[in-house]
């Protein structure tokens, strides 16, 4: 892909996520809670634009982050635990994951944390190698995975801090624990697994 095509692909990805962001704010269902989640969206988009201008990312890594933010916008509209993915899948393909796997909780939040690791790791590897060009791909990958793990921990601390400032009902709506005492642990694990699963893709690209 030429640099011109890569730049065009990035602009299209960025425009796409902005369109999704705007669409999810049409008649919001829970405006206060969605606003809290959307602050991270705005910060993330601004950071992505700034980082890419200073240390250009590959179009694939850039698009992966845009894709993650777009899905996060959908999750924010429905406060994660209310995303009606089961109803959507039943209407589209006549299949219910809840019935198939016997799920009692909404697992869309789990998907988001998994995608955080999967979608951000390629960009983190590229940025790490920008900063330290002599690093081997394995070393850069290890640092990227550790960044995913530590940032996931910090985010869970952030959720805890937000919960302390809200009423019990609002805190439950924002965090979406759904009564799961191990919610934070599962979220951090899935982010780590998502990051680790990108290794074959990264090594394949590095060998080209």
Structure commentary:
This protein is mainly alpha-helical and 208 residues long. The chain has helices spanning 3-23, 31-54, 59-77, 85-93, 97-101, 108-131, 137-165, 168-175, 183-196, 199-206. α1 runs parallel beside α3. The longest helix is centred in the last third of the chain and has 29 residues, at 137-165. The model has no long low-confidence stretch (mean pLDDT 90).
Features:
208 residues; mainly alpha; 10 helices; 77% helix; 0% strand
Gist of the model:
Helix content is 77%, strand content 0%. With 208 residues, the protein is mostly helical. Helix 1 packs parallel to helix 3 and helix 7 runs antiparallel to helix 9.
Task: Give the SSE map.
Layout: H1 3-23, H2 31-54, H3 59-77, H4 85-93, H5 97-101, H6 108-131, H7 137-165, H8 168-175, H9 183-196, H10 199-206
- Form type: globular
- Total helices: the number is 10
State the helical fraction: over 70%
Distance between the termini: 14 Å
Low-confidence stretches: none
User: What integer is the average pLDDT?
Assistant: 90
């Amino acid at each position: 892909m030429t640099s011109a095509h890569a730049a065009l692909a990035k602009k299209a990805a960025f425009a796409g996520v902005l369109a999704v962001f705007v669409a999810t704010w049409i008649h919001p269902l829970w405006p206060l809670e969605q606003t809290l989640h959307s602050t991270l969206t705005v910060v993330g988009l601004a950071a992505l634009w700034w980082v890419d201008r200073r240390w250009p990312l590959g179009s694939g890594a850039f698009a992966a982050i845009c894709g993650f933010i777009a899905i996060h916008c959908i999750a924010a509209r429905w406060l994660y635990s209310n995303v009606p993915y089961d109803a959507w899948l039943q209407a589209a393909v006549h299949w219910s994951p809840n019935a198939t796997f016997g799920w009692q909780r909404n697992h869309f939040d789990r998907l988001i944390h998994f995608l955080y690791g999967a979608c951000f790791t390629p960009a983190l590897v590229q940025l790490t190698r920008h900063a330290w060009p002599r690093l081997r791909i394995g070393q850069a990958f290890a640092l990227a995975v550790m960044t995913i793990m530590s940032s996931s921990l910090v985010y869970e601390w952030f959720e805890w801090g937000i919960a302390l400032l809200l009423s019990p009902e609002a805190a439950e709506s924002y965090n979406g624990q759904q009564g799961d005492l191990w919610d934070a642990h599962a979220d951090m694990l899935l982010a780590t697994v998502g990051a680790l699963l990108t290794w074959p893709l990264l090594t394949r690209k590095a060998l080209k």
